[in-house]
Specification:
By secondary structure, the chain is α/β, with parallel strands linked by helices. It has a single domain, classed as Rossmann fold, CATH 3.40.50. The chain contains seven helices and ten strands. A six-stranded mixed beta sheet has the order 6-7-8-3-9-10, with helices on both faces. It has a four-stranded antiparallel beta sheet with strand order 2-1-4-5, with helices on one face. The protein is globular, with a radius of gyration of 18 Å.
Length: about 240
Amino acid sequence: MSKIVVLEDVWKIYGSGEAKVIALRGVNLEIEEKDFIAIVGPSGSGKSTLLHIIGGLDRPSKGRVIVGGFEISSLTGDVKLSFFRNRFIGFVFQIFYLIPRLTVLQNVELPLIARGVPKKERRRLALEAIKMVGLEKKVNSRSYQLSGGEQQRVAIARAIVGKPKLLLADEPTGNLDTANSKIIMEFFTRLNRELGVTVILVTHNLGLISYCNKAVRLLDGKIVRTYGKSEYDKLIATFKI
């Protein structure tokens, strides 16, 4: 199986002098296609920074980032990175980032509008994605008419409407109750197993790692260890919030 994500000696440094903050320190990481990976660690360990660099939302201070065979760390200009993200990656965040004045259908169509997909085709694809998350009866609703769990499902439909190879989820259940968290994680599992989407999940909730094939533990900007599924008890026993 080929590698979809490769990080080589990746550093991320913010500021300079006394204000300098080192968020990532020489991170090396390889993720296979169709993997379902959890990235865990305490607040400030660099989890979100790492995810943003993989997704091209942030640039490394040094090191190489290769995603889908493209060295995105060498791409120049926001236009090239935006083009790459739109066609290859889906993003799901803790905050839903839905546009309140738009309907569910219109929110899900947005990435396809940016891609220049014709109206009839993008409507078909958006309705297909909405059906996948079980919200076909809510296509004309607006976000303020939806529950938190439903809003996150709309955000997932928007993330997958362009059929990405890689889905990056940053604390996607952070604003949800246990029941809705279970629904979201089961949907990620379905995407991974049935459609072959590679999923990278950032979470502080160790209860979610059971859905994942592997768990990468970060501490102070470094990867401490990668755990296989059979080793999760060791991770949970030694993890310190």
